[in-house]
Design brief:
One of its GO terms (biological process) is phenylacetate catabolic process. The chain has a single domain, classed as Ferritin, core subunit, four-helix bundle (Ferritin, Up-down Bundle), CATH 1.20.1260. It is 60% helix and 0% strand. The chain contains twelve helices and no strands.
């Protein structure tokens, strides 16, 4: 037996020739679909990628803070799922931007570097350059709020990914097909906790109701249709967020009933000024300061 056999990674390499990691987009046609403007498709991938990246970081902040060890592991896994989706989508956005000669437009870092990649998009844009919904950037200071927010976010994202699985862009379709399985678990996990809290003790019910009342009005932003989303949806490439209203309201109504929570559906989506337009809350600045600290301190480092 060789001395490397005691090391699990060496054992895998000896048996398979590599670590077993596979590119989920290997073999997927990356050519742009006809009828979709490259700038629009890059912007759309940024939107979905930023949603996942920012929500992932919020969930990561529950590590060492969740009410039980098993829940810390569950939230870490959900955060990793979203981080994986963010990587694929930001890589697609970078590929399109670089190919379209739109690298770094509007940012000094991008202009200096000349080309984008997933890391540069994640770590070297300021808040105004992010296109995530503001719903994802709200701090998770209370566990009940975190679960209700994850429930709403996951139910909405699942509806979008389900539609995107038939996108005319093969890359978006592949990302969505993988993401549907992941986000269905995220939704069910958050729903389980919401019911457990709402239908639990008097105190847990009170906190769940407060979270429900605080989070639900913010969900209207998720149903707003940005002009980029509208154009790409008409071309069969993107998912129209407004079409997710029925599924979102149905999920929330059923969970509220099981959790014995008073429920009011999300209101009318705002006409503008949302995170899709780069209009964010101060919380995103503090989130990015934490997310980007190491990369900006060591911009030339390799890992």
């Amino acid at each position: 037996m060789s001395h490397t056999s005691d090391n699990a990674l060496h054992a895998i390499i000896e048996a398979t020739g590599d670590l077993g990691f596979r590119d989920p987009l290997a073999g997927v046609d990356s050519r742009l679909p006809e009828g979709a403007a490259p700038a629009d498709l890059a912007a759309y991938c940024l939107m979905l990628g930023d949603d996942a990246l920012v929500m992932s970081h919020r969930l990561q902040q529950w590590c060492t803070r969740a009410p039980e060890l098993e829940e810390e592991v569950a939230l870490a896994n959900i955060a990793l799922d979203l981080l994986g989706q963010a990587r694929l989508l930001l890589s697609r956005a970078a590929q399109i931007r670089n190919g379209a000669g739109d690298a770094g437009r509007g940012t000094a870092e991008g202009a200096a570097a000349g080309r984008w990649d997933e890391d540069r998009l994640a770590f070297f844009r300021d808040a105004a350059g992010f296109r995530n919904v503001r719903f994802a950037e709200a701090p998770h200071d209370d566990f009940a709020h975190a679960m209700v927010r994850l429930l709403v976010f996951s139910a909405w994202r699942l509806a979008l990914l389900d539609r995107l699985s038939s996108s005319r862009d093969p890359v978006l379709a592949a990302v969505a097909a993988k993401g549907v399985k992941e986000v269905a678990y995220h939704r069910d996990h958050a729903a389980g906790w919401t019911v457990r809290l709402g239908d639990g003790t008097e105190l847990s019910h009170l906190r769940a109701q407060r979270a429900w009342d605080a989070v639900l009005p913010e969900a209207a932003e998720l149903l707003h249709v940005h002009e980029v989303e509208g154009r790409l949806a008409a071309a069969g490439v993107a998912a129209d967020p407004s079409t997710a209203r029925g599924e979102l309201e149905d999920v929330l109504a059923r969970v509220a009933e099981a959790a014995t929570l008073r429920h009011r559906p999300p209101g009318r989506a705002p006409d503008g000024g949302t995170g899709r337009y780069g209009v964010h809350t101060p919380e995103l600045d503090s989130l990015l300061a934490e997310l980007q600290e190491v990369a900006r301190a060591h911009p030339e480092a390799t890992w």
